[in-house]
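Incident log, structure service

09:12 report received: a user says their structure output differs between two submissions of the same chain.
09:20 pulled the input from the user's history:
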Amino acid sequence: LMKLDEVANVTITSDTQDRFASMMDSMGLVVAVIIVCAAGLAFIVLYNLTNINITERIREIATIKVLGFYKKETASYIFRENLILTFLGALLGLVLGKYFHMFVMSQIKVDQVAFDVRILPQSYVYSLLLTLLFAWFVNFVMGRKLERISMTESLKSVD
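09:34 re-ran on a clean worker, output below:
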């Protein structure tokens, strides 16, 4: 059997190494921008969905308050649904994201560079935890809106 050195005599110049290092630095910046934009989008979507959910159920929430539910009980009643849906959406996103990643990586054509097309298991854990963190943060922010709902809302007639 021949060794790899005997099969392909490859030399890498310092210029090639510098270009590759520069390209990887740029790639890191691109990845950071994408992550920040995805985080902003996730926050906006979760915030809007939670806001719509609370607005549509204002009389129900006011009635729950009249019945004597404590603040945390009322919040868990409303936000439990959001957390479950966020978790299910994150799981679906992890599965679909793998195929999207494979598609994107198959479309990238760069001379003299081959990208390793794999996703490490901790990446799945990080993305799931970040998604749940965003959901928790939105629920925390929207908790103030729940507190401002007046119990007299439950007495209003249906329009």
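09:41 both user submissions now match this output. Likely a transient worker issue. Closing.
09:42 reviewer note: The chain has a mean pLDDT of 83. The radius of gyration is 25 Å.
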